[in-house]
UniProtKB/TrEMBL annotation, chain A:
<keyword id="KW-0963">Cytoplasm</keyword>
<comment type="similarity">
    <text>Belongs to the DsrC/TusE family.</text>
</comment>
<dbReference type="InterPro" id="IPR042072">
    <property type="entry name" value="DsrC-like_C"/>
</dbReference>
<dbReference type="Pfam" id="PF04358">
    <property type="entry name" value="DsrC"/>
</dbReference>
<dbReference type="InterPro" id="IPR043163">
    <property type="entry name" value="DsrC-like_N"/>
</dbReference>
<protein>
    <submittedName>
        <fullName>TusE/DsrC/DsvC family sulfur relay protein</fullName>
    </submittedName>
</protein>
<dbReference type="InterPro" id="IPR007453">
    <property type="entry name" value="DsrC/TusE"/>
</dbReference>
<dbReference type="InterPro" id="IPR025526">
    <property type="entry name" value="DsrC-like_dom_sf"/>
</dbReference>
TrEMBL record, chain B:
<dbReference type="InterPro" id="IPR036188">
    <property type="entry name" value="FAD/NAD-bd_sf"/>
</dbReference>
<feature type="domain" description="FAD/NAD(P)-binding">
    <location>
        <begin position="4"/>
        <end position="117"/>
    </location>
</feature>
<dbReference type="InterPro" id="IPR052541">
    <property type="entry name" value="SQRD"/>
</dbReference>
<protein>
    <submittedName>
        <fullName>NAD(P)/FAD-dependent oxidoreductase</fullName>
    </submittedName>
</protein>
<dbReference type="InterPro" id="IPR023753">
    <property type="entry name" value="FAD/NAD-binding_dom"/>
</dbReference>
<dbReference type="Pfam" id="PF07992">
    <property type="entry name" value="Pyr_redox_2"/>
</dbReference>
Length: 105, 413
């Protein structure tokens, strides 16, 4: 299992860099995680999404899809893409320190 | 005392569930009522063939109540809402039904109006869907008059019914244009929100290989934000564009509208979350969901409803007898994928095991994840089995609810 270091702490991640143990994540790690995704500054709107991702993960065991985020997070799909241009569900999950969303089949 | 089981929806899942339950119980032990808003049962796997003139629309539709065994009440009504606290289903025109056990089997509905521009200018002229019968018929007429240009097949976003059907459409379109002699004048593109041709790596590799082999361009991670029918463009939320002369779009799906009007029943998208192994609602022990209506990490496909049906009927029996439920549904899914030229490939998988190569249902059987004429014949034979074995709620010979492990070759990507 690979590890990555955020806020001077080594944490286990999967092959794509998603946290495998969300409890190891702290808010202090988010800035560096975001910069790795090309997001220089985390605004309050980013944080709305990040906190929502974590609470959804805690409640349901998986991060929400973009569509569910758009319906339930209070941030529209259009704005989600402005905040996380590379794909909101995956990028926000990575910054929020939760595993890769399972998605649908 | 006689119990009342109410099944909402009389599509694949509702019909086979009611028929299984009818066989399990004497009419004096248990009353079974099935509710649906119309009387037309559409053989949905046939919709794929309509645009290419390979299936006749009228041959795909049969009466809903006539698929139900004797002794099942059929109630034609629009559902307003379910009151979970009162165990009552309310109808739109007034009237209600109370239940001891409720089975939600109202499937998924298409929500084209949720995508900006999709039902605007060009809808029904150069923007189509084949996911309902009127759409499939309109697309057939459009293809008959099509003489070349850019054809785009797009899935707006997941979940959708039968996630392989849009791929099959692309494969069959390639074959169709070859038969028409205009393939060299058609640019075919498959546009998906996924990061590959399919969700699971081994199958994604095989299916993207097939797309490439057939000269179909693959555009991935494209979540549809807007359809510009006048300008002939699909625009993604991250502002990429795909130009088209003819677009075949699989619209967003959601659960039936009454689910959203029934507090505590469904999730954000109107699907009903249930235990993935028992199919029981997490908060209501007497409520179950099956088939496309269920919010499960399984494909929305007829084979899923069939394999779930065996477990569901058994578990309703255990619930009514006051016994613990069996957590035995494993996510088993089985799909024939038409690839054109009288060939198809077969995939078989469950929650844990992705579609793998090998043979089904055992080491001697139909080839998995590999094109063959035998699989195409299997797909055609399935239509008869659908009406005569699947809907009556009978087992298919040699194929049980649990996914067969034997015959599968584990490979590493």
């Amino acid at each position: 299992m690979p590890t990555a270091t955020y806020d001077d702490t080594a944490v286990p991640v999967d092959d794509e860099g998603f946290f495998t143990e969300p409890d190891r994540w702290t808010e202090a790690m988010a800035g560096q995680l975001a910069r790795e995704q090309g997001i220089e500054d985390l605004t309050e709107r980013h944080w709305t999404v990040i906190r929502f991702m974590r609470s959804e993960y805690t409640a349901k065991g998986t991060g929400p899809t973009v569509r569910v985020l758009g319906k339930t997070s209070g941030v529209s799909v259009k704005e989600l893409y402005q905040l996380f241009p590379k794909g909101p569900a995956k990028t926000a999950a990575k910054i929020a320190g939760i595993p890769k969303p399972r998605g649908c089949i | 005392m006689s119990k009342h089981i109410v099944v909402l929806g009389s599509g694949t899942a509702g019909t086979l569930t009611a028929n299984r339950l009818r066989r399990m119980y004497d009419e004096r032990e248990c009353r079974i009522t099935v509710v649906d808003q119309d009387d037309d049962h559409v053989y949905q796997p046939g919709l794929l063939f309509v645009p290419f003139g390979l299936a006749q629309p009228h041959g795909l539709v049969r009466s809903r109540p006539r698929q139900l065994h004797d002794g099942i009440d059929y109630r034609r009504a629009r559902i307003d809402r379910v009151d979970l606290d009162a165990d009552t289903v309310h109808f739109a025109v007034g009237g209600w039904l109370t239940y001891d056990v409720l089975v939600v089997a109202t499937g998924a509905m298409l929500l084209p109006e949720e995508t900006e521009g999709l039902t605007g200018p060009g809808w029904g002229e150069k923007v189509f869907t084949f996911y309902d019968l009127p759409g499939a018929i309109d697309l057939h007429h459009a293809l008959e008059h099509f003489d070349g240009g850019r054809v785009v097949v797009n899935v707006a976003d997941l979940p959708v019914k039968c996630p392989v059907a849009p791929l099959e459409f692309a494969f069959l379109a390639d074959w169709y244009f070859q038969r028409c002699g205009i393939r060299d004048r058609v640019e075919l593109t498959y546009v998906t929100p996924l990061d590959g041709a399919f969700t699971k790596p081994v199958a994604a590799r095989a299916l993207s290989g097939l797309l490439a082999h057939k000269g179909i361009e693959l555009v991935t991670e494209f979540t549809l934000g807007e359809v510009d029918g006048t300008g002939g463009r699909l625009v993604s939320y991250d502002e990429r564009e795909v130009a088209f002369d003819l677009a075949v779009v699989v619209p967003l799906h959601g659960g039936a509208a009454y689910v959203g009007r029934s507090p505590g029943l469904g999730d954000e998208l109107g699907f009903v979350p249930v235990d993935p192994h028992t199919l029981q609602h997490p908060d209501r022990a007497n409520v179950f969901a099956i088939g496309d209506a269920a919010g499960l990490p399984a494909s929305k496909a007829g084979s899923v409803a069939h394999f779930e049906g065996e477990v569901l009927a058994h578990n309703i029996g255990r619930f009514l007898a006051g016994q613990p439920l069996d957590a035995s549904y494993d996510g088993h899914t089985n799909c024939f994928v038409e690839t054109g030229f009288h060939k198809a490939l077969l995939i078989d998988f469950n929650y844990e095991t992705e579609p793998l190569p090998g043979h089904f249902p055992a080491a001697v059987g139909l080839p998995l994840l590999k094109e063959s004429h035998a699989n195409h014949l299997g797909k055609l034979a399935f239509e008869w089995l659908y009406w005569h074995s699947l809907l009556p709620g009978r087992e298919l010979p040699g194929i049980g609810s649990a996914m067969p492990e034997h015959g599968k070759n584990h490979v590493h990507v």
